[in-house]
Amino acid sequence: MRTPVTLAVIAALAISLSACTQAPADTGSTPNPSSSSSEEATVSNLDECTTSGPGSDSVTVTGDFGAKPTVEFAAPLSTETTERTVVIEGKGDVAEVGSNVQVDFTVYNATSGKELESASTPYDGATYAPFEVSETGTLLGLAKTINCSTVGSRVVGVIPPAESWGSQGQSDIGVEPTDSIVFVVDIVAVVPPIVPEAYADMKDMPTVEFGDDGVPTVTMPKGVKAPTTTRVGIIKEGDGDVVKPGDNVTVNYHGVLWDDGTVFDSSYTRGEPASFATTGVVPGFKVALEGQKVGSQVISVVTPADGYGASGSGSIPANATLVFVIDIISIG
């Protein structure tokens, strides 16, 4: 079974931070920087800022903020808990627990010393990896590295297996279960949260009509450019339990390209709802689920930054704005 929108973050992979389920349109298994498959990575908390240590202090980083850094360290490098060293101190907003941030990063296997090029961002000044600072469903070590950092900062995180992929590792990008990893992260922006609205009150949104078979038809507004921020509208509010971060949900969904209205994936037409964790999908889909009640119907217009970015995914082209109509069926 396919599940919608597992995140193909930036170039080729952008960041393979969890082994997720299949994505729409036969795009295959695409990892997601907002989730982790490690059981060990959900037990700590982010109440305090992560401090530096001998491991993170031993990583030498040169280069300007916003440009790909030169990184040197003596491998193998390991640590028992995440260490965080600030290389460049920014003066912008602070990334805190619950913040949604945009980041650039370079990733290394700390055991071999090799850069994980497929998991590093392109530093193109336009395409950034989105990440939610949270201990639930995240790569905990990356959350600890970003937490407390200010916009404009460059920070080094040395992360042990227990706070990344644990016993599973991430062989697709060259990380074995016993490998620590090194992240060099530029904090580009703290993004205001997306607030869902009543769909009936929203302007310049696609129209949605449900057929007798329950399958939605989505029509784009004429002469309206795609929005520059993700928008979520509540078509119908349910009366069931509220979806919480990290919940496993069962939904029907219908995905359409904003530019030409092409349907790229639809569980409605397959006649088979999809089940997945809210942390296993792109941010623009995730925000349409969490906080909503079972029985709700929701529309989400997803910008490339909150979707598949510059890489696209399968039949989803690069830099595509997406429209999802979602029917939240159940939790668990």
Distance between the termini: 17 Å
Low-confidence stretches: 1-44
CATH topology of the largest domain: Chitinase A, domain 3
Looking at the structure, what is the overall shape? Answer: elongated
Q: Sheet with the most strands?
A: 7 strands, mixed
Strand content: 25-35%
Number of strand elements: 18
Query: What is the domain total for the residues?
Result: 2
- The average pLDDT is 85
Structural class: mainly beta
Please compute the radius of gyration using only Cα atoms.
20 Å
Feature tags:
332 residues; mainly beta; Chitinase A, domain 3; 2 domains; 7-stranded mixed β-sheet; 5-stranded antiparallel β-sheet; 4 helices; 7% helix; elongated; disordered N terminus
Nutshell version of this structure?
It contains four helices and 18 strands. The chain is mostly beta strands.
What is the strand and helix layout of this fold?
Blueprint: E1 22-23, E2 28-29, H1 54-57, E3 60-62, E4 70-72, E5 83-88, E6 100-109, E7 129-132, H2 140-146, E8 154-159, E9 181-191, E10 197-198, E11 207-210, E12 216-219, E13 231-236, E14 248-257, E15 263-266, H3 267-270, E16 274-277, H4 283-289, E17 297-302, E18 322-331
Parallel strand pairs: 10-13
Antiparallel strand pairs: 1-2, 3-4, 5-8, 6-7, 6-9, 8-9, 11-12, 13-17, 14-15, 14-16, 14-18, 17-18
